[in-house]
Predict the 3D structure of the following.
Amino acid sequence: MIQRLAILDRKLLRDLSRMKMQAAAVAAVLACGISLFVMATGMYGSLARARDDYYDSGRMADMAAGVVRAPQEIARDLAAVPGVRTLEARVSGVGLLDLAGRNEPVSARLVSLPPDRAPRVNDIVLREGKLPDPAHSGEVLVNEAFAEANHLVVGTTMGALIYGKRRDVVIVGIASSPEFVFAVAPGALLPEPERFGVVWMGREALGRAFDLDGAFNDVVLRLEPGANARAVGNEIDRLLVRYGGRGAYGRDRMLSAQFLSDELNSLKTMAAILPPFFLLVAAFLLNVSLSRLVATERANIGLLKSFGYGDSSIAWHYAKFALVFALIGALLGMAFGLWVGNYVAAIYAHIYRIPGLHFAAGPGVYLAALFVAFVASVVGAANAVLRATRLPPAAALSPPAPTSYGRLGRATENAAARLDGKSRMVARRIVRFPRRSLTTVAGVAMSMALLVTAQHFPLSMDWIIRVTFGMSQRMDVMVTFPEAVDDAILKDLGRLPGVLQVEPLRSSDMFLEAGSHRQRNSVIGVPPDAMLNRVLDENLHPVVPRPDGLTLSENLARKLGVHAGDMVRMQATDGHRASAVLPVVAIVKPFLSAPAYIELDALNRLLREPARVTAAYLLIDQRQREAFSQRAKELPRIVSVSFLDNASASMRKLLSEGSGFFANLFVVFSSLMAAGVAFSAARVTLSEQERDLATLRVLGFTRREASYVLLAELGALLLLALPIGVVMGMTLSRWLMSQFETDLFTFPYVTNAAIYGKSALFVIAAVTVATLVVRRAVDRLDLVGVLKSRD
Amino acid sequence: MAGMQSATAHSTPVFRLEGLQKRYGEGEAAVLALRGVDLAVTEGELVVLLGPSGSGKSTLLNILGGLDRPTAGHAWFRDLDLAIASEAQITQYRRHNVGFVFQFYNLIASLTAQENVELVTEVTDDPMPARDALALVGLSERTTHFPAQLSGGEQQRVAIARAIAKRPTVLLCDEPTGALDVATGVRVLEAIVTANEELHTTTLLITHNADIAQMGDRVVRFFDGSIRSVEVNTQRVRPSELRW
């Protein structure tokens, strides 16, 4: 038996060396799927682990609450709330920084550090330097990303503007914290490390700066395992209410944590959705290759059976082809997945400052990849292998009956009558082998669809940026205030150099309730004549927020389970905790975040705080930008000044960093898929038609004319596949976009002809290259050998 | 017998072979398939090539058909030396001058009988209508059948119709009856003779079967890569009178 198997294995090796190219086609497509799987699964694990470790070691807060001003003693009561494990009552606020050589204002989140110990919650990791000395009030730490982006080193002095008062501080250390893995300025959605940083200062110094001596305005806490978060939150709110509590919230409202969890979800989605496309096509290619192998080996199979080889050894022999293909694909895929994983991890490490974030897929991921590859190969091989075992030896030894062709339908025949002989051959073959033709069409269409989809994401992001920063937000500058301030400030802003127009805005955190649904969400008050910050509907027409009802984002409406006309109860999380019941008057679909809108004065009335604003949008004369920046820093109530062009540029950069890489990766993968499918189909056509092609050559047809039969079949299938791919691409794009949608991001489906043109070009190029590689065999046809053999 | 002509009736040579050699392989493994063959075939002649397997007759036919190249010597088709002609010339030569019939019919399975013939008539100058070619081999009733719907003999006759439809100068038949029973074989040979007589197609026919040799104008016997003898039949025997 060993002897026998060894001989068959020798045959296997020789056959495999003949089938190098088919093996390469199958393995390449399989490798694409496996590498995506390894990358996405491995990256998910790495990021989740790094995050959890970091949250653990850095004692990341489970809950936070803002308060206007609470006496320090209350902290003890808060810490005693059942379910609270540890708690830190601190001072936190936003201020402006004055960096040498940078005229435009830079803002910072300022956070206090306890004088004598490490923070119990939201600890910091010192990357460089030392902790601030409580005895020296001017010593601060800055976060790593901010230091890097602004070339700040230990020893750098900068100005800090808090409540309009300027003081010089010196950087004594560079740190990171689980709280600010992703540091985002107030009012912004994405990090801009050049223009927003985190500054940690001694408790006393910062308390004085914010006028919070012996008091705190920010609570962060960790919960006991199994604690009832809602109950804890309610108790905290109850204790803080009289000091101007702003309501406790969990990690789902902490932007940094929310970003991380969205990213993890995206990776999970990617790992689940994308590899199957490639695995499916790989299985199909394997099926095509093996079916053809079994067909050409018919006589050998009969012979082996007549020698007494059992079905199982024959099945095992052919199954081994599939397993070898799978192994090659899996190994290539794992190696490439590891490389891509490392590349992506480097991007992540740059965006998220998580210590120890590197790509590390455990043996489980690789074992799973192997398993997945083998399953795909077994699925692909099963029917060919079964066919080999089912061949009765006598039938296998006699030549196969000629393929029987019939007439096509009458209409098709009439059309075929107008074709020349060679085209008729092509047409009849396509119809005669519908399953194979269809799978080739499906494979090519799928690669077209993936290409289309891959290009839709960058287009969608580009559209988000163009709409957000071009049509919706038309201001030059956004200025935010530390809290709701009197709208007299608008006049002060109007007097700044270069300011042409000022538009107010009020944003307030509220609880929104409908039925059993309850969401904490920002409600934005917009003036009815807003020109600089407009709410747009799906057709990009401005929607004027009404005073008598809420305009909800679709995302929020879904979470509240409401439609236009339904009633929503809203309650402020701070101040007077005013509440009201309002109808939903319109639903809009913004791309970024999921706010609710209402007319500005109506919001102020509702909150019982008339004439207040939390931010302002300005139109300025760009020629006076420098003078404006200089003076804006001096206004005491301004905590951040953000220029729209900067925000749009950083958003573009951040999005292109990740999505650009993936889009390119997909272009390569999808082209490989198209090439693999075309190569496989062309190989089979060649193998089955070798005799016909040789006959054509003998009849005096030139190589080019004979090649036509091969090329026209692929060409026809390609032509059929492209429009199907377009439709599949549209559907897949829409579906994937909905799958990748998060609370912070909605991907609008926008499309243009260039996407399809470019995708078609890639598919056509890939199919052409693959077909031409196979076509060369027509030149090398052994006319005598082919025609004189039986088959 | 009317229509039965002898070799001497036409003296223009269609093929002229001089010192034709064909070697396969190199060094010690080299096999000499043709060891210097000299032969002239005149227009309209029906030459039967006889000989055991490996005697070189198929190699010769392949060279004459432009499917293979000699290692040395010349093989003239009129003014074209097939030994040195370009690939394009050879293709054009096959296209316009040669009709092939093989032991295995090599029909295109996806085309009907008539379409198999039309495949050739579409690309040649002055072909005969495909239906006429099929009528000539007695298949007028089977024109719309696909190869899988035809018997072996019928398939072979379609192959002959396809070969003669272009009105080729030469018809090369390699064991055309090798896979057929006697009665069917006779019908196939009748078709070849008809083409030879009615179209004056110079015909070379390979067979193992010495009885079939009686239907040719000349019989060329091969042995070990050389011509052993050339016999002239004074009387060609009709295929229907052959017995084997």
Observations:
- Chain A has a mean pLDDT of 89.
- Chain A touches chain B at residues 401-407, 420-422, 424-425, 428-429, 432, 691-692, 694-703, 705, 783-784, 787-791 (CB under 8 Å).
